[in-house]
Amino acid sequence: MGQGKWEIIDGTLRGQQLAADNHTGFRKIYLDHQNVRYSYDVKLEGEVFHQLLINWGLAHIAKIMIRYEEASVWKIKEANKRKQMTALGHDQGRDPLAGKWDEATKSIASVPLKLKTGHWYRVEVEMKDDSLSVMVDGKSATGHHIGISEKKDNFGFQAGGLTGQISIDNIVVVDLRDANELRSPAIPLPM
């Protein structure tokens, strides 16, 4: 499931945004998970950015954004998420914000980077309870927000920008409770 143009080229997932979609290019991977570490290699080529979105159904819980000059951790506006969940009949039976849903989508941590186009970089994203961190090229940022503790059943790779592409390779998701590698039942992870 996704938008944009996605291909497997030489064993690597390559994606780009398409103007006709009027949306960033994305590819979802369905996987029930809670406290995990996502590890993968990313390459940016052209005027692009990359996001890792962490979701429950169609509702975004949090995201990591990687640009040439910065990596950042974002929390998503709770009201939008709740509206999507209600429309789809999805009720987690949880409300960690206790009805205080008006806080905007915003960056809660960031770190400056100096990435080069066409180069591979290892990305480590760790999500545990209310904490979400990203490390790229040895530099890291960690943010905390109670909304990050929500249930998750999928994550997605996003490619943003109409004049370039991203490549993703060597994807591993590890359950932090027992350090076991998790696998998506619906879509095999390219290795």
Report on this model:
This protein has 191 residues and is mainly beta. It has one helix spanning 78-87, and strands at 2-3, 5-9, 12-16, 25-33, 36-56, 59-67, 70-75, 106-112, 120-128, 131-136, 139-144, 152-175, 180-182. It starts with a strand and ends in a 9-residue tail after the last strand. The relative contact order is 0.30. Residues 185-191 have low confidence and may be disordered.
Keywords, separated by commas or semicolons:
mainly beta, Jelly Rolls, single chain, 13-stranded antiparallel β-sheet, 191 residues, 1 helix
Write a brief structural summary.
The chain is built from 1 helix and 13 strands, in the order E-E-E-E-E-E-E-H-E-E-E-E-E-E.
Structural domains: how many: 1
The CATH topology comes to: Jelly Rolls
What would the principal axes of the Cα set say about the shape? globular
Distance between the termini: 19 Å
Number of helices: 1
Query: What percentage of the residues does DSSP assign to strands (E)?
Result: over 45%
Give the overall pLDDT as a whole number: 87
Cα-atom radius of gyration = 16 Å
Helical/strand content category: mainly beta
Secondary structure layout:
Elements: E1 2-3, E2 5-9, E3 12-16, E4 25-33, E5 36-56, E6 59-67, E7 70-75, H1 78-87, E8 106-112, E9 120-128, E10 131-136, E11 139-144, E12 152-175, E13 180-182
Antiparallel strand pairs: 1-4, 2-3, 3-12, 4-12, 5-6, 5-9, 5-12, 6-7, 7-8, 9-10, 10-11, 12-13
